[in-house]
């Protein structure tokens, strides 16, 4: 078949949300963190990146398309990932199609990459984590790389720190490591997604008029100027990480919630202690925290944990479906959709929770009573853009259905 | 004249704003802090408390009126101040009126106290600091107490921690002290109000719908739950206090601004690190910080320092009148008065700055151009309730003009 063949693989990789936060690098290029972090992987059915990688002797250069638009691969982070994965490439043979790529050929062959997020890239939902994890995972499959997920995570880490945690499902720990070359700074799975199946997750995508500080420059400024960051990294997080691992192992939601909330707040405290200060949370984020704290106090034991990344969106982890149903009632009471929005486009992901909450349509939302713990509560329509309902989910998978590939199998160009 | 006489004194005491923050007590009853703090005293012409204290054998009990309304003196903080000052009372004689009070008489005599703030009590402008300082200062004068201002500050401290810093003008340091009885936890003047006359202060009283956590309960919760507070108190503040004293002595505005802003942000970071987290600043506070940071960066050297106490109000310290005029232009551009508000009731205190800024009326405010560093800036009318323009000011004074007394000289009751 000459030199016209295109060989490709398509993978799907989840996003993750940290419950013990990563904030601050000790090495900017290798992306080595100042402390361990722990995350929960989100169900890829609701939030994931799909990436198709292709190789062909016909390709003239490495090219990449993100959400249908070509982007540059010249940045150091892409280059580091491509270089590291190419180093580990092995012989690949497709006997049926008569294709054989020798180990040494990989250095000369060019790649086409197409990636797509099933959620808004700009919404601050860790798209780069899923993206780099998916890129590295898909390339590893294409190149027949023998390294396991942990070893791959150390490569994905060089694209985006939090990407290393998207190589596994369930709960994942990013071990900061000690080596200067970063070889021991990688992710391990603590428990898989079946270990704690009760948990239910609601993400409030918060409307924001502010342009946010990127997490890369934000954490650099924190490392340089915050007098609290090193204390957090050296004294606070190591103890918290051990306690969080225990809470996860024991499915101890009260401890889990206390640690996750405290760590989210401390991360934002360090941002505020940065010069100039960084504000990721806004008044809506603060309100959501106050509602959750009030609700947890009135219930006597935590029903919901909150955590916020480098933006105003709230990730709310409910202890079980019942708590999630009560949570969505409260959230929709405080933050109803604007009059021109229907419930179907306001609540995305796993919509079955609506039925549990007795909410079939907008009329039911309008009829919601104020939460008992906050009788004189004000409503803020429009302050939340939409909600996504999801759960802890599985790690990366290879998609064998060729129809799901994002590149044309003949041309290697986006479909 | 029998037992009908009333003897009284009237004093006026300024508020103060901390530039190195007090947050956290090591002793709740004596009000002993976990770190030193430094404040600037605000001009009492614009923000002050006036207190008249009276004694008469005709009084049946200790009574107090605050802003015209009788309040209870049964609280521990009032009782501690009254007890401590009574202990130090000495013989008082008014030969003209034939009045003589022996030292031992003070234990039996009752007091009437009337206090008035020339600014809204609820606006979060340190009314309790000025209030307790004025109470102690006025009683010390009435009772012929020989203790100096520093020794009096240790009594005022037991009413409200920050009150001890209102016993002096200019820049004041509250030394945390080491003794268990609090005898060495008192205020000293660093420099008087003439030392750094260039400074100009603009307070933005920020509209807020939130009910705020009281600073008393807030700092208790921070001490109990924040893992960053002790690090701040032990490691960060001691160095910062020395640097701040130097900056003040040298009138080094760049260092002063850097330290004041950093310390305000760190105090709010500790609040955020508290469980449950405490939010004193809101989106408007955050916006003001961003504008000041942007402006300072574009000027190359700091023109304005910001500091926020336990509420959303911004206290902005401009390096001189020129910087203050530019600041008020920016502030009125971003936060114009609502259409039903005139400039005269929107900008209180020293209004001469308006002329420097070329702003004679609302038309001039409407005609303001966007600040050069922020060309596409949005306006937020209504997000600031009003501004107060002021300067560093003098310490407590005794008012000799009887017309300014708040109690009737015959009855000892509020006028």
TrEMBL record, chains A, B:
Residues 14-187 form the Diphosphomevalonate decarboxylase-like N-terminal domain. GO terms for molecular function: ATP binding; diphosphomevalonate decarboxylase activity. Residues 201-398 form the Mvd1 C-terminal domain. It is found in: Peroxisome. Its main location: other. GO terms for biological process: isopentenyl diphosphate biosynthetic process, mevalonate pathway; sterol biosynthetic process. Its EC number is 4.1.1.33. Pfam families: MDD_C, MVD-like_N. It comes from the Eukaryota. SUPFAM superfamilies: GHMP Kinase, C-terminal domain, Ribosomal protein S5 domain 2-like. It catalyses: (R)-5-diphosphomevalonate + ATP = isopentenyl diphosphate + ADP + phosphate + CO2. GO terms for cellular component: cytosol; peroxisome. Keywords: ATP-binding, Lipid biosynthesis, Lipid metabolism, Lyase, Nucleotide-binding, Peroxisome, Steroid biosynthesis, Steroid metabolism, Sterol biosynthesis, Sterol metabolism. Belongs to the diphosphomevalonate decarboxylase family. Performs the first committed step in the biosynthesis of isoprene-containing compounds such as sterols and terpenoids. PANTHER family: DIPHOSPHOMEVALONATE DECARBOXYLASE (PTHR10977). This is Diphosphomevalonate decarboxylase. It comes from Gossypium darwinii (Darwin's cotton).
């Amino acid at each position: 078949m000459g030199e016209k063949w295109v060989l490709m693989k398509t993978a799907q990789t989840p996003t993750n949300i940290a419950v013990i936060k990563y904030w601050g690098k000790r090495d900017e290029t290798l992306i080595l963190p100042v402390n361990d972090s722990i995350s929960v992987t989100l169900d890829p059915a609701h939030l994931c990146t799909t990436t198709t990688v292709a190789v062909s002797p016909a390709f003239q250069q490495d090219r990449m398309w993100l959400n249908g638009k070509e982007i540059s691969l010249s940045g150091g982070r892409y280059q580091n990932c491509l270089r590291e994965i190419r180093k580990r490439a092995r012989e690949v043979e497709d006997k049926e199609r008569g294709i054989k790529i020798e180990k040494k050929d990989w250095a000369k062959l060019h790649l086409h990459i197409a990636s797509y997020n099933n959620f808004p890239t700009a919404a601050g939902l860790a798209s780069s984590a899923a993206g780099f994890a998916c890129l590295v995972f898909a390339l590893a499959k294409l190149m027949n790389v023998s390294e396991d997920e942990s070893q791959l995570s150390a490569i994905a880490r060089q694209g985006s720190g939090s990407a290393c945690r998207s190589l596994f499902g369930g709960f994942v720990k990013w071990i900061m490591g000690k080596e200067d070359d970063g070889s021991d700074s990688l992710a391990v799975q603590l428990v898989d997604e079946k270990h704690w199946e009760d948990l239910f997750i609601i993400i409030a995508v918060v409307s924001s008029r502010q342009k946010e500080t990127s997490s890369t420059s934000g954490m650099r400024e924190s490392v340089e100027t915050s007098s609290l960051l090193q204390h957090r990294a050296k004294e606070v997080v190591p103890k918290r990480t051990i306690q969080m691992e225990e809470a996860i192992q024991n499915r101890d939601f009260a401890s889990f919630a206390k640690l996750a909330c405290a760590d989210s707040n401390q991360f934002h405290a360090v941002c505020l202690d940065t010069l100039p200060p960084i504000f990721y949370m806004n008044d809506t984020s603060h309100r959501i925290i106050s509602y959750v704290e009030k609700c947890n106090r009135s219930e006597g034991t935590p029903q919901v944990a909150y955590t916020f990344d480098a933006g105003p969106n709230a990730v709310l982890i409910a202890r079980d479906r019942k708590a999630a149903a009560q949570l969505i009632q409260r959230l929709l009471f405080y933050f109803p959709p604007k009059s021109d929005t229907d419930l179907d486009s306001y609540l995305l992901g796993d919509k079955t929770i609506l039925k549990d909450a007795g909410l079939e349509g907008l009329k039911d939302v309008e009829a919601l009573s104020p939460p008992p713990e906050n009788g004189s509560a004000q409503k803020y329509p429009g302050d939340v853009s939409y909600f996504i309902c999801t759960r802890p989910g599985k790690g990366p998978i290879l998609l064998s259905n060729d129809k799901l590939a994002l590149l044309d199998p003949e041309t290697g160009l986006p479909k």
